[in-house]
Amino acid sequence: MQINLVQQAITKTLRNFLRIIPMIVGVFLLLALFNTIIPQHLYAKVFTNIPIVDALIGAILGSVSAGNPLVSYIVGGELLDQGVGLAAVAAFILSWVTVGLIQLPAEAIILGRRFAIIRNLINFVSAIIIALLVVLTLNFIK
Predict the structure, then answer these.
(1) pTM for the structure as a whole
(2) Residue 38 to residue 49: CA distance in whole angstroms
């Protein structure tokens, strides 16, 4: 009886996985498209030097851009080298990795629309708060 349940679980999992493969491929293609359309050097021109405003702008841009956590270190370093403030970079990278407006339709289908929206909103707000706390902490330490 246990083997039958395991087989059913494996079959159901494979069926669900095969069903979402086209969505996953579509999300990756959209990510590549957005990262190609919006060059990274344009980000530096958008930011002010006001931490709260920069954190908000960074979170918005990161939410739209969406990217890979491994690449975030390189992108963050490049943005800092181009003169973008730490609050903007921290919010951008956090939302770039955790918020996904591009992935939202696929995530809503897989996990449910309400869950996907709430998760993205919480991560968006958290990215701004954490970015400001990073700047405050570093200013406090200095």
Answers:
(1) 0.72
(2) 21
Number of domains in the chain: 1
What are the pLDDT digits (tens) for 53-99? 999 999 998 998 877 776 777 778 878 887 889 999 999 999 988 99
The closest of 52, 62, 50 to 99, measured between CA atoms, is 62
Q: Give the pLDDT score at 40.
A: 64
User: What is residue 117's three-state secondary structure?
Assistant: helix
Answer yes or no: are the C-beta atoms of 120 and 108 closer than 8 Å. Answer: no
Q: What is the distance between the alpha carbons of residues 27 and 20, in angstroms, rounded to a whole number?
A: 11
Query: What's the token pair of residue 6?
Result: 């395991």
Burial class (CB in 10 A: 0-12, 13-18, 19+), 4: exposed
Q: 124 is in which domain, residue-wise?
A: 2-141
8 A C-beta contact, residue 134 and residue 90: yes
